[in-house]
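We close this part of the discussion by returning to an individual protein. In the encoding step, the backbone of a single protein was reduced to a row of integers, each denoting a local shape. The sequence in question and its structure tokens are set out directly beneath this paragraph.
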Amino acid sequence: MKVDTNTLKKIAHLARLEFDETSAEKMTQDMTQILDWVEQLNEVDTEGVEPITTMSSEVNVLREDKVGEHLPHESGLKNAPQRDSDYFRVPKVLE
């Protein structure tokens, strides 16, 4: 797929990118190469290949949920630096 100057300008506007004419020519060539490579990937036979859901090979170690004893909410709030009735008070994050 060939990326033309108008398409590049639209993409640059959406991505809030700015570059000069020399860089625009290089960017057009690079984007065309990337899209050509993606088109090659579309030709690969992926029949029977399971999709991956994560890039990590680690497996979550899960445990069985068990009902246990819980502390009353008063004891949990006892050492809170600031509290309001039955709730923890925390600093405001957003204005």
About this structure: The two ends are 46 Å apart (CA to CA). The first helix runs from residue 5 to 14. The mean pLDDT is 87. The chain has three helices and two strands.
